Structures are given as structure tokens and as C-alpha cells.
Backbone:
């Protein structure tokens, strides 16, 4: 039998020493699943509510109340539910709070149970989470988008934009994709050191270089040089992606590039991004404007035609926001962060709606993450096409890459390259 027997949560730590919710769901047949949830730093206002304790413990970041909710209200509600029945657990979880963003129980509490129950069901079926979510057939491995240089809220604002990433668009396998990106990261570190940036030995929150190399354009220049130094062809083999995380630049009446001492309007920021796209092999840009500027986003998507325009804070993995976005053609791709939504069912629904609209989908980790690797299985099982986990340093990042390498080496897989047709 695959009914839920027992749900136990506890407080764990994420990669920034902040408490997070961990949970084990056990079934009546003896199988079980465990999950630890991640947490963002550049969070959007429309994300599922992250319940924190306040007070002195962990600077107010404790999650004992969320843990308590799992061990009482959530456990009571899901005990006896058949975990093998698709969506059964999530449908119960989604009804419990009364608030669509889980303001009372905490999205962190709800997600821990959702993922642990999904894993328990996979364990009961004797298959991986990826296989259970995907069903039969070759498992589609996603194209990775890998952080090389960090800025914004992840690197003490060393540069203004949050992420400069590489996309191994010419790779033939997931293993080759990672090897190329590792080469570029190392070359970027060496070049930055040679340029006199001693801080290039330090890493930012997502394992990228957190080095103040000058302005955004200097950082892009460094990245393109690093691709060449790695012996790879910019554009054909290694392309560039940017997460502007523009919410973080918004002052209330404009976008402030503090590292460059400039203030821009929405139109000027899009012009600036269009300039980067013209001068460098940029194939993807994320959060180009703040989360409430729907008209600005539609203008940017038109202006940046041919480039993947990804909404992260804009959509916050929320159904109605995505519907608004597809109606307005405010982007052409969605970042899917399950903790922005709250349940696996909810996040998958957003991903599938985006796909039905002809949009690309990118499954993403958070800047505060853990050694847990379930995100890799989601990206594969949902056929997301792309995955973004941060860089190749630090084990909470490598856990996901290593899980994808394991699947490529041991399961029936196919490496999906969504850029093949484009390049
Ligand atoms: P976050 O950053 O987890 O701090 O929100 C990740 C991103 O913006 O993509
Ligand atoms: Zn983002």
C-alpha cells in the first residue's frame, strides 16, 4: 500500500547558513522520500510566502513554526492519502491554507511535503523521481545554463547585473556541456586574476566569481575572453545568458546601475541590454525589467526579437501571472522555481501552460540551496529543456549537476539541445 503513514519535518540549513524546512514522508509499504527546500535572495513579491520565525534565533530566519505546521496540520491532512495517486497529495496541500500563496502555513512547509511525497511515491514504484514524472521513453536531459560571474544580491553588488552565465549550445552531451563550462569558469578566474582582481579566488552565493571587474560591459567582455581562452567558439559552442534581476535595480523611479554610477529609464535599460546582445553572443536574458512593468516587458520582448526573454520575478511560477504574460506577449520563456509556487503540481502546471503557449521553460534552483538534488529529476521528468543551478563550484550546485551526470551515465537518456535549431 502506498498510503502516507508518517510525516516528520525538521529544521535544516541551506548554503547560506539559513534555516530551511526538511521533511520525510513514509508510506505504509515501508518506502519513504525526503526533501529539503531552497530559498532565494532576489525574491519577487509574488512568490509563495516563506514563513520565518522572527526573533533572535538565526537573525529571525528560523523555520520552527513552518516545521511545526508540517508536523501537525499538514501531517494530519495528508496521512492516509495515497501518494501513488497522481496529484492526490498536492490537491490536499493546496486546499489547506486558504491563501493561494500559503501565507498562514508557509510555502516552505507545503513544498517540503509535496516533494518528499513525490519522492516516496517514486521509491514505492521502484523508479527514480525523473522516471516517475516522465513515464516511459528516453529521459530528456536539459541544456544547462551555468553561472560564471555573479553580481547583484548574490555578490555584494560587485557588478549590477546578477548573473552572467554560459550556455553550451554546441555540446553533444550533458557531460561535454559541463566540461566546457568548467573550462570557461577556470579561464575567467585566471583572466580576472591576471587583470589584477585578487578577489577572483572568492566565490559568490551560487559558486560563481563574485568579483568587481568594473561595469556590466567589462564583465561581459571578460566572459567572452574566457570562452576564447578555453579554446571554444563564442556563439557556436558557448553562448552567453544574462539575468539582470532588474527588481533589484529599481529605485522607485528608475533603474540604478550603482557600480557604474548611472540611472536609467526602462527604455534606456532595454537599449543597454540590446547593446550587450549586439556585441556578445547572448542568447537569453532574464528579468530585464521590474516585476510590475508589463508594458515594458512586451516592448523589451519585441525589441530583443530572436533572444530568449525569460520571466523569473515577473511570473513567480504563478498561473495567473503567466496567463497575463502570455496574453500580453511580455516574454517568451518562463523560469520555474517550485518554491515560488508551493507544490510540484502547481509548478508543473505553470511549466505546461508555458509550453502550450510555445514558450521555452527553464527549471531553476535558488541562491540559497542545499545538497538535495531533486531539482535535477524535475527538470528531466518534466522535460523542461533547460536548467539553471548556479555555477560549478560548491556542492549544493554540483549535487544537481552530478545527478544529471548520473542519469546520463546510467539511464536511457537523450541530451536535449533547444538551441540547435536556432544556431
Ligand atoms: P534567487 O536568485 O534564488 O536569489 O532569487 C536566482 C535567480 O534570480 O534566478
Ligand atoms: Zn532570476
Residues:
Amino acid at each position: 500500500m502506498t498510503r502516507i503513514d508518517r510525516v516528520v519535518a525538521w529544521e535544516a540549513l541551506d548554503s547560506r547558513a539559513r534555516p530551511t524546512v526538511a521533511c520525510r514522508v513514509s508510506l505504509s509499504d515501508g518506502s519513504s522520500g525526503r526533501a529539503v527546500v531552497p530559498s532565494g535572495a532576489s525574491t519577487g513579491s509574488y512568490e509563495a510566502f516563506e514563513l520565518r520565525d522572527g526573533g533572535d534565533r538565526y537573525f529571525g530566519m528560523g523555520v520552527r513554526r513552518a516545521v511545526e505546521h508540517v508536523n501537525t496540520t499538514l501531517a494530519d491532512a495528508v496521512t492516509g492519502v495515497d501518494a501513488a495517486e497522481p496529484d492526490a497529495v498536492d490537491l490536499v496541500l493546496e486546499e489547506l491554507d486558504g491563501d493561494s500563496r500559503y501565507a498562514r502555513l508557509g510555502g516552505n512547509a507545503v513544498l517540503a511535503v509535496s516533494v518528499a511525497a513525490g519522492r516516496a511515491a517514486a521509491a514505492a514504484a521502484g523508479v527514480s523521481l525523473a522516471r516517475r514524472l516522465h513515464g516511459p521513453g528516453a529521459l530528456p536531459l536539459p541544456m544547462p545554463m551555468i553561472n560564471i560571474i555573479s553580481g547583484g544580491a548574490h555578490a555584494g553588488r560587485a557588478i549590477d547585473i546578477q548573473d552572467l552565465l554560459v550556455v553550451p549550445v554546441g555540446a553533444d552531451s550533458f557531460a561535454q556541456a559541463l566540461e566546457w563550462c568548467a573550462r570557461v569558469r577556470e579561464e575567467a578566474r585566471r583572466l580576472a586574476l591576471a587583470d589584477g582582481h585578487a578577489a577572483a579566488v572568492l566565490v559568490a552565493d551560487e559558486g560563481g566569481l563574485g568579483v568587481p571587474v568594473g561595469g556590466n560591459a567589462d564583465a561581459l567582455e571578460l566572459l567572452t575572453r574566457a570562452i576564447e581562452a578555453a579554446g571554444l567558439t563564442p556563439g557556436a559552442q558557448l553562448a552567453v545568458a544574462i539575468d539582470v534581476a532588474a527588481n533589484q535595480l529599481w529605485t522607485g523611479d528608475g533603474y540604478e546601475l550603482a557600480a557604474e554610477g548611472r540611472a536609467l529609464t526602462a527604455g534606456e535599460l532595454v537599449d543597454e541590454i540590446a547593446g550587450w546582445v549586439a556585441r556578445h553572443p547572448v542568447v537569453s536574458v532574464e528579468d530585464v525589467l521590474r516585476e510590475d512593468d508589463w508594458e515594458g516587458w512586451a516592448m523589451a520582448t519585441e525589441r530583443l526579437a530572436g533572444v530568449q526573454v525569460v520571466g523569473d520575478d515577473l511570473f513567480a511560477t504563478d498561473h495567473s501571472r503567466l496567463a497575463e504574460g502570455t496574453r500580453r506577449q511580455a516574454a517568451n520563456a518562463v523560469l520555474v522555481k517550485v518554491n515560488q509556487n508551493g507544490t510540484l503540481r502547481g509548478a508543473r502546471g505553470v511549466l505546461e501552460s508555458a509550453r502550450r503557449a510555445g514558450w521555452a521553460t527553464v527549471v531553476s534552483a535558488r541562491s540559497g540551496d542545499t545538497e538535495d538534488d531533486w531539482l535535477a529529476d524535475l527538470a528531466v521528468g518534466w522535460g523542461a529543456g533547460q536548467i539553471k543551478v548556479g555555477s560549478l563550484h560548491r556542492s549544493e550546485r554540483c549535487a544537481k549537476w552530478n545527478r544529471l551526470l548520473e542519469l546520463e551515465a546510467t539511464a536511457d537518456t537523450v541530451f536535449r539541445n533547444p538551441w540547435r535549431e536556432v544556431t
In short: The chain is about 40% helix and 20% strand. The longest strand covers residues 4-13. Residues 40-43, 162, 243, 245, 312, 364, 366-367 surround 2-phosphoglycolic acid (ligand 1) (CB under 6 Å). The mean pLDDT is 97.
